[in-house]
């Protein structure tokens, strides 16, 4: 059971790190989208690997919205995973406490 606790704790920590990264990416996408929509330009330069491509503002905004939707879906899945891992961890700790005879707090 100790191994189960350690495994759940490490997975929970990794899930929280992934959530933080995705939330940071969402803030960056939101900022980029607002900057593009507020600009008076018809085209933007989009970085693709080592080159830049001239892209229309509408296409670029559309790709930003698609990426935002994708990240939001990932955040939902990670929050579900986080809840599952927290529940697993709490249940494991309660089982150990019950087995050892310590009262749960």
Automatic annotation (TrEMBL):
Domain of life according to the entry: Eukaryota
Gene3D superfamilies named in the record: 1.10.287.370
GO MF entry, a single one: unfolded protein binding
InterPro entries: PFD_beta-like (IPR002777), Prefoldin (IPR009053)
Chaperone keyword on record: yes
GO cellular component, one term: cytoplasm
Pfam family, one: Prefoldin_2
SUPFAM superfamilies: Prefoldin (SSF46579)
Keywords on record: Chaperone
Keyword Lipoprotein on entry: no
Family designation: Belongs to the prefoldin subunit beta family.
Descriptive protein name: Prefoldin subunit 1
UniProt organism field: Komagataella phaffii (strain GS115 / ATCC 20864) (Yeast)
């Amino acid at each position: 059971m100790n191994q189960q606790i350690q495994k759940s704790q490490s997975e929970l920590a990794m899930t929280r790190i992934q959530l933080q990264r995705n939330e940071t990416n969402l803030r960056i996408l939101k900022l980029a989208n607002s900057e593009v929509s507020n600009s008076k330009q018809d085209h933007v330069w989009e970085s693709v690997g080592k080159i830049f491509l001239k892209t229309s503002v509408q296409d670029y905004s559309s790709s930003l919205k698609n990426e935002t939707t994708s990240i939001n879906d990932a955040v939902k899945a990670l929050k579900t995973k986080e809840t599952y891992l927290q529940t697993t961890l709490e249940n494991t700790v309660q089982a150990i406490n019950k087995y050892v005879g310590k009262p749960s707090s």
